[in-house]
Amino acid sequence: MSHPEDHDELKPSTTPGYKLGAAKSADEYAQLDAEDESLARWKASLGIVPGASTTNSSGPKVSVLTLELDSPTLPPGKKLIFDLNDTAKLADTKKHPISIKEGVEYNVRITFKVNHSIISGVRYIQVVKRAGITVDKLEQMLGSYGPHPKGEAYTKNFDPEESPSGMLARSGSYNVRSRVIDDDGGVYADWEWSFKLTKEW
């Protein structure tokens, strides 16, 4: 059950005085300053080329596929990846939280597809609670992307963090609410999962 304060915590932070421009299609962006070669190369790196956008602009602009926790301390072959389409497995973490080793550096990585249009101002927000009290919040910008020319997914690695350590940190489990949202308040993914801190992976 969500509480009103949860929604405030999961709203993106704002920059005073910043105003979001009007949304444009990939083709409209491709035509802007078409004579500027360096800008054209940069737009092409985002998949913004004249005539390349799909005419099907229905559905979400962004589809978030996976969330992964990565660490150089993970044993060979061990991966902590959530398939966001597997809602049953995500829900199962509430009964069987995943184990994260205490006191290690790790980072969050997500893969996503841009289906149409250009995205900017899209960010990943993660709120960690223990016994109903917020103990950590992560907010990271995804960046600007257009639909991939080959329809492939993008991968974004966020800044490394360090997991808490100590006997107190290891007692009980942590509940996480993750969200991918843009500056307009459009939510592309919203899910919950749980973890516990352990002495080993």
Question: Would you write up a description of this structure?
Answer:
By secondary structure, the chain is of the alpha+beta class. Helix content is 15%, strand content 39%. The chain has helices at 4-9, 26-31, 37-45, 87-92, 167-170; strands spanning 62-70, 80-83, 98-101, 105-114, 119-130, 133-145, 154-157, 161-162, 174-182, 187-198. It starts with a helix and ends with a strand. This is Rho GDP-dissociation inhibitor. Residues 1-22 are annotated as: Disordered. Residues 1-11 have a biased composition (Basic and acidic residues).
Write a concise keyword list for the protein shown above.
201 residues, alpha+beta, five-stranded antiparallel β-sheet, 5 helices, 10 strands, 39% strand, RhoGDI_dom_sf, Rho GDP-dissociation inhibitor, cytoplasm, Ig_E-set, Rho_GDI
